[in-house]
Structure to design on (274 residues):
């Protein structure tokens, strides 16, 4: 009985959402704080508490970031606010290589445009948006003045980290023996909270596709939480897709970065031998 009621409620919500999308143009800006837990692995386990605090201070710019999502019914842009390193007084250039660049989504065409810079070269990544298969629940909570509903999804990990890089990425894969036709795809559990009070199917970063603006989303060790929303009454929020850079797909960009990092590793090993 509960299952039937839940399905009926969700059906009505989605129907009303579709009606509102067509009947009302909405635009605005939402500010998000990103917080990630520091993971130092086996190396970190050997550090003193004082040393851990020092490392955390140096990594603060990578663990805590601020983003602004500009959105309407169809388009959105997601941009990071640049911060100055509190210790060195400089921007975090190395961390910037493997962070998300200026991000644009068109949910009508289901297209992504993202600007990435890697070692002085600018790339314009153009690809399809990954269509997220959300499971919506009835659990609610308040985020600011908005009532939000919980949703979950299992998303291929590669879809959330294609612009990132770890030296472990260069290690040979042991997921499947040579000759296997299929390698098991790694999935990330994503938890989102969306509000039908702002009936746009937008969200921060790669996340979208729910009947309301996503105000909080957690994946792996990172949470994006909306701390401010400003709805525009004149529908004049500027949303512009990045335009500069060599056009490339997500897969091609990942391969390009990997090849460059292999080259750097080999050059470094060559100098040591010399």
């Amino acid at each position: 009985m509960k299952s039937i009621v839940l399905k009926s409620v969700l059906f009505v919500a989605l129907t009303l959402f579709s009606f509102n999308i067509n009947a009302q143009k909405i635009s605005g800006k939402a500010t998000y704080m990103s917080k990630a837990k520091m993971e130092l692995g086996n190396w970190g386990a050997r550090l003193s508490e004082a040393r851990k605090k020092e490392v955390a201070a140096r990594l603060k710019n990578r663990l805590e970031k601020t983003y602004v999502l500009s959105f309407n019914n169809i388009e959105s842009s997601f941009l990071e606010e640049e911060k100055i390193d509190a210790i060195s007084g400089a921007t975090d250039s190395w961390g910037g290589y493997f962070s998300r660049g200026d991000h644009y989504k068109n949910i009508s065409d289901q297209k992504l445009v993202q600007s990435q810079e890697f070692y002085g070269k600018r790339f314009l990544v153009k690809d399809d948006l990954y269509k997220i298969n959300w499971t919506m629940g009835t659990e609610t909570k308040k985020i600011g003045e908005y009532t939000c509903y919980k949703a979950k999804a299992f998303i291929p990990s590669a879809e959330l980290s294609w612009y990132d890089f770890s030296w472990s990425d260069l290690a040979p894969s042991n997921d499947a023996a040579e000759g296997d036709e299929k390698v098991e795809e790694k999935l990330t559990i994503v938890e989102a909270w969306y509000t039908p009070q702002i009936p746009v199917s937008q969200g921060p970063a790669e996340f979208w596709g729910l009947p309301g603006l996503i105000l909080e989303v957690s994946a792996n060790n990172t949470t994006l939480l909306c701390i401010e929303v400003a709805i525009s009454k004149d529908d004049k929020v500027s949303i512009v897709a990045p335009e500069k850079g060599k056009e490339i797909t997500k897969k091609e960009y990942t391969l390009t970065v990997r090849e460059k990092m292999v080259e750097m590793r080999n050059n470094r090993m060559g100098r040591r031998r010399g």
